[in-house]
Design a protein that fits this description.
Shape of chain B: globular
Number of strands of chain B: 10
Number of domains of chain A: 2
Largest interface: A-B, 44 and 48 residues
Number of helices of chain A: 12
Helix content of chain A: 25-40%
Helix content of chain B: 40-55%
Order of helices and strands of chain A: EHEHEHEHHEHEHEEEEHEEHEHEHH
CATH topology of chain B: Rossmann fold
Order of helices and strands of chain B: HHHEHHEHEHEEEHEHEEEHHHH
Strand order of the largest sheet of chain B: 2-1-3-4-8-7
Distance between the termini of chain A: 49 Å
Strand content of chain B: 5-15%
Number of helices of chain B: 13
CATH topology of the largest domain in chain A: Rossmann fold
CATH superfamily of chain B: Thiamin diphosphate (ThDP)-binding fold, Pyr/PP domains
CATH class of the largest domain in chain A: Alpha Beta
CATH architecture of chain B: 3-Layer(aba) Sandwich
Largest sheet of chain B: 6 strands, parallel
Strand content of chain A: 15-25%
CATH class of chain B: Alpha Beta
Number of domains of chain B: 1
Radius of gyration of chain A: 20 Å
CATH superfamily of the largest domain in chain A: Thiamin diphosphate (ThDP)-binding fold, Pyr/PP domains
Strand order of the largest sheet of chain A: 3-2-4-5-7-6-12
Largest sheet of chain A: 7 strands, mixed
Structural class of chain A: alpha/beta
Oligomer: heterodimer
Chain lengths: ~325, ~350
């Protein structure tokens, strides 16, 4: 019988691997000695590897993030945990203006291999300040790599790749994926520079692109369409910055149709960026329909359950839009 | 040592000779030379800011030379110092490398940051200067993390955070002091209190003119001292840094001083739009270089002639370094994209 694993297990295993194999790795963040904030992803790490390397800290996002950067500049490969994206915003100066620029502004004479682990933890009537993702913001910044895993395998392998990367990395994961189950695979050590969007489904009727949680929604819908003899190429982006769309361009040249599903706002967002890059590169005569993006409505997250149902992207939204693409021909 | 702040901020005080007793002559000469290198380098830069040859914003440290020199001589090159916008003094105190600074402010490839940083982003890892940036307060938590790294290394190294009185109005100072205190991190916080942030006097920004009160509230050992007495600060730091190496903990040093030029640029008379008062004239009589020199002459360990010779030789080197920097090459265009990531895309 094959062994199963989950996304949350993958992250925990990634931490175990790093703590076991890399002395220069340590992790700091609020709640790490009682890590219920982060589900089971850090369970008992402090007990196994010691409170000197699994460090709980004061309620100071800015200073602790800056300290993570300082330790990274001085030879460590630290990771700071921000159990919610929203609170991490208190540390934006350190992430955007310090870490991301540190190598460049010193002409390559220093580097900052820090990892910022941020968790999207939304819905459940938590409202506007407990629901943000903002990955597009961070992907805007040269010098800051942005990684968002969808599979359990990637959650583990890319966590390791992020920490071992010589660049600062924003590693954003989604609580809605924690229970996602898949076949267990062995750890692979992958250079983050070699990680590109992953093709999860094959087809020539349309190209569908998701990011992390929306890749799960897309994959489910694309699989359902296969029963109706509609076959889509489907990609999970994985690394948002620097963005590589080479395979997606080839796919759209084949299908002529593109749907991008991004669980963030539309304006200046990843969906816009992906569509633009594809359009810039393809032979436009091969396009058979206007590209479509599905994003959140341009409003802060609501609390009321009824509004939440309307706010978040559903499989139905994706289904409707794939159908629309399949039916249309320019 | 907690000197009376009302005296420390009074330019009529502390004009007397300083106490150089117990410090060996080579160290005193080292201090004098380093302060002279800084002053003359800054004057050279000021001259070329005025002509427009230097475009990047330069925040000059003339008048504040003693702080960086005292710290620079008391620290070792495996310690990790981080600076701010006014950090030429901290950099030159460690390496006296005027060429690499001149080339950097001119945006040349042979500058300390390969021309990518200018005056405000300077670095010399080899000598323990791990970087300066102009976002006010930004390196305070970074130095705190360098202290965490030093503590984990268990080598007795310390981190040094240079900042000014203005940075004490940023919340991150408090977060950092709290963290360093509760985690016992070996971080030396050095506040150069020159009484001004940009154009505004500390009396108009804070309810007290001494920032050491923040260290008190975070239960960090702290000192308020004459920032224009290089020997006094050096003696204090030797002792304190020694303790920090053996028994990891933070220390906060508030050094009262005064800048002779404006917040940014070469001018003495006008500072970011405001006319300066007569206070500067009085502060010039508390000159850290003159006070050390007078003390050395009085004690018979240096002569005016020796000083003139030292001064001339420094000037000659600075003039040469400037010419070399002027004729150095700019970065190649492809360098722009090659240093964004560790591996070029």
């Amino acid at each position: 019988m094959s062994k199963k694993t989950t996304y949350a297990d993958g992250i925990l295993e990634g931490f175990e691997y790093l703590l076991k194999n890399h002395k220069e790795f340590f992790v700091i963040g609020q709640g790490l000695w009682s890590p219920w904030y982060v589900g089971s992803t850090m369970k008992d790490l402090d007990k196994k590897y010691g409170k000197e390397r699994v460090i709980d800290c004061p309620v100071s996002e800015l200073a602790t993030t800056g300290a993570t950067i300082g330790a990274a500049i001085c030879g460590y490969r630290p990771l700071i945990v921000h159990p919610r994206v929203d609170f991490m915003l208190l540390a934006v100066d350190q992430i955007v203006t310090q870490a991301a620029k540190w190598r460049h502004m010193f002409g390559g004479n220093s580097s900052c291999p820090a990892t910022f682990r941020a968790i999207i933890n939304r819905a459940g009537e938590q409202g506007a300040q407990h629901s943000q993702s903002l990955h597009s913001w961070f992907a805007h910044i040269p010098g800051l790599k942005v990684v968002m895993p969808y599979s359990a395998k990637d959650a583990r392998n890319l966590l390791i790749s992020s920490v071992l990367s010589d660049d600062p990395v924003m590693f954003i994961e989604d609580r809605w994926l924690y229970e996602k189950e898949e076949e267990y695979t062995e750890i692979e050590i992958i250079d983050l520079n070699d990680v590109t969007p992953q093709r999860l489904q094959n087809g020539s009727d349309a190209t569908v692109v998701g990011i992390s949680y929306t890749s799960m929604l897309c994959e489910k819908v694309v699989q359902k369409f296969q029963n109706e003899n509609v076959f889509c190429d489907m990609f999970d982006i994985r690394v948002l910055n620097p963005l590589n769309v080479d395979e997606i361009v080839k796919s759209v040249e084949k299908t002529g149709k593109l749907l991008v599903v991004d669980g963030d706002w539309a304006s200046c967002g990843m969906a816009a960026e992906i569509i633009t890059r594809v359009i810039e590169k393809i032979d436009l005569t091969k396009l058979k329909a206007s590209p479509i993006r599905i994003t959140l409505p341009d409003a802060p997250a609501p609390t009321s359950k009824i509004l939440e149902e309307y706010y978040y992207i559903t499989e139905f939204d994706i289904h409707t839009n794939i159908q629309k693409l399949v039916n249309s021909n320019l | 040592m907690k000197q009376d702040v009302t005296l420390l901020i009074d330019p009529l005080q502390f004009r007397h000779n300083i106490d150089i007793d117990g410090i060996e002559k080579p160290i005193l000469i080292d201090m004098l030379r380093k302060m002279m290198v800084i002053r003359k380098a800054e004057e050279k830069i000021a001259q070329h800011v005025e002509t427009g040859e230097i475009k990047c914003p330069c925040h000059l440290g003339i008048g504040q030379e003693a702080v960086g020199v005292a710290v620079g001589i008391a620290m070792r090159n495996t310690d990790r110092a981080f600076g701010a916008h006014r950090s030429h003094t901290h950099y030159l105190a460690l390496n006296e490398d005027t060429y690499s600074l001149f080339a950097e402010v001119l945006g040349k490839f042979s500058g300390c940051s390969h021309g990518m940083g200018g005056s405000m982003h300077i670095i010399d890892n080899k000598n323990g200067f791990r970087g300066s940036v102009p976002i006010v307060g930004a390196t305070i938590p970074i130095a705190t993390g360098a202290g965490l790294a030093a503590k984990m290394d268990k080598t007795g190294d310390i981190a040094i955070s240079y900042f000014g009185d203005g940075a004490c109005e940023e919340g991150v100072l408090h977060e950092s002091l709290n963290m360093a205190s509760v985690m016992n991190l070996p971080v030396l916080y050095v506040c150069e209190n020159n009484l001004f942030s940009s154009h505004l006097h500390i009396d108009l920004r804070q309810p007290s003119n001494t920032t050491a009160r923040f260290a008190d509230s975070h239960m960090i050992r702290n000192f308020t001292v004459d920032g224009n007495d290089v020997v006094g600060m050096y003696k204090l730091l030797l002792n304190e840094i020694g303790d920090m190496r053996n028994n990891s903990h933070p220390v906060y040093l508030e050094a009262f001083t005064y800048r002779w030029r404006g917040h940014v640029g070469h001018r003495e008379d006008i500072d970011v739009g405001l006319k300066r008062g007569d206070e500067l004239k009085l502060w010039k009589l508390r000159d850290p270089i003159q006070r050390l020199l007078n003390s050395m002459i009085t004690e018979g360990i240096f002569t005016q002639d020796e000083f003139d010779q030292l001064s001339n030789s420094i000037q000659i080197k600075i003039n040469n370094d400037w010419l070399l920097a002027e004729s150095a090459a700019y970065p190649e265009k492809d360098f722009l994209l090659s240093t964004v990531y560790a591996k070029e895309l």
